[in-house]
Design a protein that fits this description.
The complex is a heterodimer of chains A (315) and B (582).
Chain A lengths: L11 E2 L22 H10 L2 H18 L36 H37 L1 H16 L2 H11 L5 H28 L2 H9 L3 H37 L11 H8 L8 H28 L1 H6 L1
Chain B lengths: L20 E12 L2 E13 L4 E5 L6 H8 L7 E10 L2 E2 L5 H7 L4 E4 L13 H11 L5 H14 L5 H4 L9 H13 L5 E5 L7 H18 L2 E6 L2 H7 L2 E6 L2 E7 H6 L4 H9 L31 H5 L10 E15 L5 E15 L3 E5 L6 H8 L7 E6 L2 E2 L5 H10 E4 L13 H11 L5 H14 L16 H13 L5 E5 L7 H18 L2 E6 L2 H7 L2 E6 L2 E7 H6 L4 H9 L10
Parallel strand pairs in B: 3-8, 3-9, 6-7, 7-8, 13-18, 13-19, 16-17, 17-18
Antiparallel strand pairs in B: 1-2, 1-4, 4-5, 9-10, 11-12, 11-14, 14-15, 19-20
Helix pairs in contact in B: 3-4, 3-6, 6-7, 7-20, 14-15, 14-16, 15-16
Classes of the chains: A mainly alpha (315), B alpha/beta (582).
Chain lengths: 315, 582
C-alpha cells in the first residue's frame, strides 16, 4: 500500500469543454468501407513506378498481340546486301548480319518471349498453388511426399534442367519451352504457398469456421487460400520476368525456340557473331528484353509493398 | 458535474521542493503521409523524488508515448513537437543524442512491457545484464561480472551465479521480467519508467514482481513512473495518479482521492467500470420457470456495476446441459528422434453446466482451461472420460450429428484481431454459419445479419465493412453476432474480453448478460481474470495444472475460498482491497 501522506501535486481536473468524453467504442461511420484488395489498389495507385511499369507492360502486350501495328516491314524479308547495315529510312535500327530489319525482328520477337513468360508463369502458379495449398493444409504423408519431391526439383537449377530436357525433346515450340521451365520452377511457388497456408490455417478464424460447422475443404477454399495467396502473386509477377530471361538464355544457347520462330533470345544468339563489328544488332533485342523484365520486376515490387501487411499497418 | 479545478503549482525555488521530473505542456506527434498526427496534446505532469506516479489510460490514450518521449525512445516517425520535459531542472527535449544517452539508463531506468521479446534470445542472460552495466559505466572488466551477479541477486534470482550462462528461453516470464527490472535498476537511477511491466504475466506472478519492485525502489529511493491500463493496479501501487484520455490529462492527483471522488466524467466512467472484488454479478439469470416474469431493465454503463449487482436474484438451478465426467487430455510432444514427452493438459476433470447459467473456468496460463473449452467444442478429441451435451455423448458425433451439435454450441475466441477473416466483410462473416448450415435464402440471411448486428448494438451498415476498420471491441461484437447466428444454446467464451480495454470490456460484459437474459443462453466462460468472473459467473471452477482444485458457486468461492491456491489468486487481484466509486 502506498503511503497516505499528502502529495504536493494537488488534485487537477481538466475542464470538460477541452476534453469531451466520446461514446465508448462507437463505430466511425464517416469512413468508406475498405477491403484488403481495395486498400492494396489504393496504395499501388499512388506509386509512379506502378504506372510506369503498367504502361510498359500494356505496351509490350499490345506489341506481342498486334506486331503489324508497329511495323509493316517483314522480319523475314532479308537481303544479304544489307548485312550489318546501319539505319536507313524505313529501317530505323539497321540490319542484322543476314540483312533482316532489326526493328521488325525486335517487334515480332516480342510475341514468342512474352508467350513463354506468361504460359510458364501461369502453369507454375497453378501447379504451385494447388500442390502447396493441399500439402500445407492437409499435412501428413501428402505433405512429406510433396515437399521431398519439391526438394528434388529444387536441387536442380532451372536452366540446367531445362537444357538437358530441351536437348532431348523432338519438338520445340513456345509451349514446350514453357512446360519445361514450369517443371523445374514450380517448387518455389509451392513452397511459398505451403508456408503461407501453414500460417493461415492456424489462425483463429479458421478455428472459428471449423466450430461453425464449415467443412474442411470449404475452409481451405474460402478462408485459407485467399489469405495465403498474396506472396504467391508477388513471386509470380517477379518470376514472369525471369522466365522470359530463361527462354532467351535457352534460345541463345540454341536449344530454346527453333530459329524459324522469332524471339529475342534467338536474335541475341545470332548477333553474337557480329558483336564487335556492329554491336547495335545485339543491343536492340537485349534492350527490349531488359525493359520487359524490368517492368515486371518493378510491378512485382509495387505489388509486394501494397500487399505487405506490415506496410498496410503503417498507412 | 465537476468544475475545472486549478492545479496547485509547486514552487520552483529549488532545494528539496524541486520536482524530479516535470513535464509541461508536452506535445508529441507522429509524422504520416497526411501530416503530423498528434498523439500527446499538452500533457502536464509532476513527479517528486521518491514518489510513485501512475499514468492510467486505455490503449491509444498516449500514456506510453508520453513515457517514451521522456528518454527519447519514440518509435519511428514520432517526435516531440512542443513543451518541456524538465528532469532535475534540465530540459530533456533540448539534449542531443549523446547527451540523452548519458541520461538514459544512468539516471532514468526503463522496464519494458513484454518480457518475452525484450531479451535477445541469442545471448545469455549474464551477457545481456553485463552489457547494460558496461554501457552505463557502472563497472568494467572483472567488476562488471561481479556486479552482474549482484544485480541478478537483487532482482530475486537466488542462484544468480549459475544462471549467468543460461539463455532467455530457459527463464519463465516472471524471471525474465525480474532480469529486466534488474537491468533497469542496475545503475541506481533516480527515476524508473515501468511500462505495463506485468501485464503479460499471471496475476500471482504479477503480484510478487510488483512487491519486489516496490521494495527495491523504496530501498534505493528511486521514483517510479508506472504506465498501466489497470486502475486497480495503479491505485494499489502509486500514490499519485494521472488519468489520460485521447492524448490529454483529464484528471490527476492523489490516487486515494481520485478513486474516492472522481470528478472528470471519464474518470468516473473508469472507476465505475473497474471490476473488483467488491463487485457482484451484473444481472440476474433468466430461470427456467419464470420465463417472462422479470426481465431486468438494461442499465447504462455509467451506473456502477455494483448497483446493478444488487438487482441480482437467486434461482433454483435448471437442468444440466453440459456434463463433463472424469475427462483427461494427453498431448504427445515430439522430441528429437522417435522419443516423445507426454503432457497431461487436462487431468480427470468433472463439472456440470446448468441451462441458462454461466460457469467460469479460471486459471493461470498453462492450467488447461482453454483445452477444456476445445474439448467441449469438439475441436480436440478427449483422451479419456465423457462429455455429454443435452444427454448425448459428444465424442462419437459424426457427419450430420456433429453439424447439429455445432449449431447448438458456438465459440467466441480471445483475440478479436485473429478470429475474423480479414478478407471477409462483416456481413459475409456473420452470414457464414447460415450458409454453412444452408439456412434460408440470400434475402432471409441478409435480414438475419441485420437483426444480429442490431442485437450486438452495431448499425446495420457495419455489414459492408472489413475487420481492419473496426476496433477490438467492435470485432468482438461481430464475433458474438456470428456465434449467435444459428441460435445456439451454449456460447463458449474463451478469454473473450481479456484483450479489451476496461470500458469496452464492461460494455461487452453487459451485452453478454443482456443477451443471456433475452435469449436464455448458457455460457461457459474461460478466463484468467477473477475480477471479471465475479461480474458474470454463477459458478466457478478454479483450475491449476490441469486439475480442478475448487468448484462452487461464485459467492462461495469469493467469500469463502477453501483452497490455498484460490486464496492466492484472490489476493493477487490488483486493487482488490479498494472500494471503487463509493
Amino acid at each position: 500500500m502506498p503511503s497516505k501522506n499528502i502529495t504536493p501535486q494537488g488534485h487537477y481536473v481538466a475542464p470538460l469543454e477541452e476534453t469531451p468524453v466520446a461514446p465508448i467504442d462507437k463505430l466511425d461511420e464517416s469512413q468508406k468501407a475498405r477491403s484488403t484488395w481495395a486498400d492494396a489498389w489504393d496504395a499501388m495507385r499512388r506509386r509512379p513506378s506502378f504506372w510506369i511499369s503498367s504502361v510498359l507492360i500494356l505496351l509490350i502486350i499490345v506489341v506481342a498481340v498486334f506486331p503489324t501495328l508497329f511495323t509493316q516491314v517483314s522480319p523475314t524479308a532479308c537481303q544479304l546486301s544489307q548485312s550489318n547495315g546501319g539505319p536507313v529510312a524505313g529501317h530505323p535500327l539497321g540490319f542484322t548480319r543476314q540483312g533482316c530489319d532489326v526493328f521488325s525482328r525486335v517487334i515480332h520477337g516480342t510475341q514468342a518471349s512474352v508467350t513463354v513468360g506468361l504460359m510458364a508463369t501461369l502453369m507454375v502458379t497453378l501447379v504451385g498453388v494447388i500442390v502447396g495449398a493441399l500439402a500445407g493444409f492437409y499435412g501428413g504423408i501428402l505433405d512429406t511426399l510433396v515437399s521431398r519431391l519439391g526438394d528434388i526439383f529444387f536441387a536442380i537449377p532451372t536452366v540446367l534442367g531445362a537444357i538437358v530436357l530441351m536437348s532431348v525433346l523432338p519438338v520445340r515450340t513456345p509451349l514446350t519451352v514453357a512446360v519445361v521451365l514450369a517443371i523445374f520452377a514450380w517448387p518455389q511457388i509451392a513452397r511459398i504457398m505451403r508456408g503461407a497456408v501453414l500460417s493461415a490455417k492456424n489462425s483463429d478464424y479458421v478455428m472459428a469456421s471449423t466450430a461453425l460447422g464449415v467443412s474442411k475443404f470449404k475452409i481451405l477454399l474460402r478462408h485459407v487460400v485467399p489469405n495465403a495467396i498474396a506472396p504467391v502473386i508477388v513471386i509470380a509477377t517477379v518470376s514472369l520476368g525471369t522466365f522470359i530471361v530463361a527462354e532467351a538464355t535457352l534460345s541463345f544457347l540454341g536449344i530454346g525456340l527453333p530459329t524459324n520462330i522469332m524471339s529475342w533470345g534467338n536474335d541475341i544468339g545470332q548477333a553474337r557473331t557480329s558483336i564487335v563489328t556492329s554491336p547495335q544488332v545485339l543491343l536492340y533485342p537485349a534492350a527490349a528484353l531488359s525493359v520487359t523484365v524490368l517492368s515486371f520486376l518493378m510491378l512485382g515490387d509495387v505489388v509486394r509493398d501494397a500487399l505487405d501487411p506490415k506496410a498496410r499497418a503503417r498507412r | 458535474m465537476s468544475q475545472p479545478v486549478t492545479e496547485t503549482v509547486p514552487s520552483l525555488d529549488g532545494g528539496a521542493d524541486q520536482p524530479l521530473l516535470q513535464i509541461r505542456d508536452l506535445e508529441v506527434g507522429f509524422e504520416t503521409q497526411r501530416g503530423i498526427v498528434p498523439a500527446v496534446r499538452g500533457v502536464d505532469l509532476t513527479l517528486y523524488a521518491g514518489q510513485t506516479l501512475a499514468i492510467v489510460g486505455e490503449s491509444g490514450s498516449g500514456k506510453t508515448t508520453t513515457a517514451q518521449s521522456i528518454i527519447d525512445l519514440l518509435p519511428g516517425t514520432g517526435k516531440v513537437t512542443g513543451g518541456q520535459i524538465l528532469f532535475e531542472g534540465r530540459d530533456l527535449t533540448t539534449l542531443n543524442a549523446r547527451e540523452i544517452q548519458a541520461v538514459r539508463g544512468n539516471l532514468i531506468g526503463y522496464v519494458p512491457q513484454d518480457p518475452m521479446s525484450n531479451l535477445n534470445p541469442v545471448w545469455s542472460i549474464g551477457f545481456q545484464v553485463e552489457e547494460a552495466i558496461k554501457a552505463n559505466n557502472i563497472a568494467q572488466g572483472k567488476d562488471a561480472r561481479l556486479r552482474t551477479i549482484q544485480v541478478l541477486k537483487e532482482a530475486g534470482l537466488s542462484d544468480a551465479a549459475d544462471r549467468l550462462k543460461q539463455y532467455p528461453h530457459q527463464f519463465s516470464g516472471g524471471m525474465r521480467q525480474r532480469v529486466l527490472i534488474g537491468i533497469g535498476l542496475s545503475s541506481r537511477p533516480k527515476l524508473l519508467i515501468a511500462d505495463e511491466p506485468t501485464s503479460a504475466l499471471d496475476v500471482t506472478v504479477q503480484r510478487t514482481i510488483l512487491d519486489h519492485l516496490a521494495t527495491l525502489t523504496r530501498d534505493y529511493g528511486t521514483s517510479v513512473l508506472f504506465i498501466t491500463h489497470d486502475l486497480g493496479l495503479a491505485a494499489e501501487r502509486a500514490e499519485q495518479l494521472v488519468v489520460m484520455y485521447q492524448g490529454k490529462v483529464v484528471e490527476s492527483g492523489p490516487s486515494q482521492e481520485i478513486l474516492a471522488n472522481p470528478r472528470h466524467p471519464y474518470t468516473q466512467r473508469l472507476v465505475a467500470a473497474a471490476p473488483s472484488l467488491a463487485s457482484r454479478r451484473i444481472q440476474s439469470v433468466k430461470h427456467a420457470e419464470a420465463k417472462d416474469a422479470e426481465i431486468f431493465s438494461e442499465g447504462s454503463l455509467d451506473d456502477t456495476l455494483l448497483e446493478r449487482a444488487s438487482k441480482r436474484e437467486h434461482a433454483a438451478p435448471a437442468d444440466e446441459l453440459i456434463s463433463v465426467k472424469n475427462v483427461s487430455k494427453l498431448y504427445k510432444i515430439r522430441k528429437q528422434g522417435f522419443r516423445h514427452d507426454e503432457l497431461l493438459a487436462v487431468n480427470d476433470v468433472s463439472f456440470g453446466v446448468h441451462r441458462g447459467t454461466t460457469t467460469a473456468i479460471v486459471g493461470e496460463s498453462g492450467s488447461g482451461k482453454s483445452t477444456v473449452a476445445k474439448l467441449i467444442l469438439q475441436l480436440e478429441s478427449i483422451t479419456s472420460g465423457e462429455i455429454k451435451f443435452d444427454g448425448q455423448d459428444v465424442a462419437g458425433l459424426r457427419g450430420a450429428e456433429l453439424l447439429k451439435f455445432r449449431r447448438r454450441v458456438q465459440p467466441v475466441f480471445q483475440d478479436p484481431y485473429g478470429s475474423l477473416d480479414p478478407q471477409y466483410s462483416v456481413g459475409n462473416t456473420i452470414a457464414e454459419p447460415l450458409l454453412a448450415h444452408k439456412v434460408g435464402t440470400a434475402k432471409e440471411r441478409e435480414a438475419r445479419v441485420r437483426e444480429l448486428l442490431d442485437q450486438v448494438s452495431l448499425p446495420s451498415a457495419t455489414r459492408f465493412r472489413y475487420p481492419s476498420e473496426l476496433s477490438g471491441g467492435q470485432r468482438q461484437r461481430i464475433a458474438i453476432a456470428r456465434a449467435l447466428a444459428l441460435k445456439p444454446d451454449v456460447l463458449v467464451l474463451d478469454e473473450a474480453v481479456s484483450a479489451l480495454d476496461v470500458l469496452v470490456q464492461g460494455q461487452i460484459l453487459n451485452l453478454l448478460t443482456e443477451l443471456q437474459t433475452e435469449l436464455g443462453l448458457t455460457y461457459l466462460f474461460i478466463t484468467h481474470d477473477l475480477a471479471v468472473v465475479r461480474l458474470v459467473a454463477d459458478n466457478v471452477c478454479v483450475m491449476q495444472k490441469g486439475k480442478i482444485v475448487e468448484a462452487a458457486t461464485t459467492d462461495e468461492v469469493f467469500d469463502n475460498p477453501r483452497e490455498l491456491y484460490t486464496q492466492e489468486l484472490l489476493a493477487a487481484i490488483p486493487g482488490g482491497n479498494f472500494e471503487f466509486g463509493r
